[in-house]
Write the structure tokens for this entry.
Amino acid sequence: MKRKLRILVLMHESLVPPDDLSGYSDQEINEWKTEYDVMAFLENAGHEVRALGLYDNLADLRHAIRDWRPDIAFNLLQEFQGIITYDQHIVAYLELMRQPYTGCNPRGMMISRDKVLSKQVLSYHRIPTPSFALFRRGRRFKPSARLTYPLFVKSATEDASLGIAQASIVEDEVRLRERVEFIHDHTRTDALVEEFIAGRELYVGICGNQRLTTLPVWEMSFGSLGETAAIATRKVKWDLGYQQKHGIRTGPARGLGPAAEQAIIRLSKRAYRALYMSGYARMDFRMRPDGGVYLLEANCNPNLSYGEDFAESAAHGGHAYEKLLHRIIRLGLDYEAEWRTFEA
């Protein structure tokens, strides 16, 4: 991108990175690595970059937009006021301010972040997804007769594997009740119960608004944990020591075959469009030993850290990190939000 831009990087107030990494441990850096990487690479590319840490004050965002007039807001927020589903309202506010931004639009965020609603939409479009039931917090426990064990229990709204552990896979009604109550008590959310799909864990990155491009299919290898413990718990995803201990890694999916790979890519694009997503996203799949593929989740605005799955997949497909960031910015600048109609 030849044009030099004013870029306002939005992030949680606790994740504003330091100017220098000296003196910080790997675990400490990991907390705000995405924010640091995005800002450092954009600054190195010659852009004028400012960080804006937010928690619950929209006035700070309004003043930054009105006073500095950024060309684009690079959205790295994952919550607002400590509530994960409120980040969609920040994007809606950006649209009200007629401020271009990166990542998914408000409608796509709302639908994809609501795991129950998104599964209903996917089912309507005949996109394979595990059968499920919702156990609402504060309601009497009543097991679903149509679901087949083993089942997988998780929060209906939280992400980043919050509340997910090996105990999330349950084999009978007693364990199901215990895990549903655990989700209710520890995440203070409804519990989503799905039929557990054993098999390979595959990820597909997507970039685009109208025209979509997919990144190479990526796979999580669970190393010494084996198939019986092959789920992406919080420790599997974020604990560097745990990953090294068990040889957990991600990389290009091997041995899929052209037909299977194309089928997964088609499903990814269909889901992206069905959920009204834009900007960039990551689709999480499970592939059974018989080749059956199920979409587990559609993740808008996935982790953009340098060296993490999305960026590594992009690099494998020929898009180095800086090029990826510029692609995301271009998609944000080109996104046809409703307010652009009235400016034409």
Notes: The mean pLDDT is 90. The chain has three domains: 6-103, 131-195, 198-333. The CA atoms of residues 33 and 273 lie 30 Å apart. The domain at 131-195 is CATH 3.30.1490 (Dna Ligase; domain 1).
